[in-house]
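Entry 14. Two folds queued back to back today. First construct below, sequence then structure tokens.
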Amino acid sequence: MSSRQDYPIGDTEYGQMVQISQSEPLPQAAASGFTVAQKSPTTTVSVVVPANSSRKRVVLVNHGIVDLYLGPTSGVATTSGFKLAGGASLTMESLGAVFGITSSGTATIHVLEESY
């Protein structure tokens, strides 16, 4: 008798199944490294974090006092973006680019990007 069984992983509505057993557990992708950067977005929309198909997660820390507004496109605005207040941080699991803009002044953003 086989010790393998099918266990649903993810959205079972679409029939996603994987084979796992004690000798072959569910595979885990390990992060291979990380990079750090400092960005200084202003009142002009700019890329805070470029798209990265190898990204596992990204951490943004606003070390300044100027609020930053984030969005997934260059159309981000202070009226529609996600507000990252001065002193706040945000962790995201996203492969796409992150754009930012301030309502005035220059923000000081530290970025830690973890990749596969």
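Second construct, same run, same settings:
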Amino acid sequence: MRIDFLFWRECPSHPEARALLREVLEERGVEAEVVERERSSDDGRIALLRLTPEGEQRLAKSFTSNAAERNALRQAFAHLDIVA
């Protein structure tokens, strides 16, 4: 299960709401990934995302686990003259 926690920094109760959400999930034994989406105060269409510690680990692993494929692609395209 994934829960999107939307907030904007100027909201005085967002730290309390975040803590309450985590407390309720823990009390009920609910395993959920909480994604924090910070809304921009200047433009409500913009949301800033933060990776969870697990997300950080998965992102780092994706770079190292795909190294062989990236190297193979690099070699396959090395002979091409690419113009930017």
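Quick look at the second one. The CA atoms of residues 67 and 73 lie 10 Å apart. Residues 2-77 form one domain.
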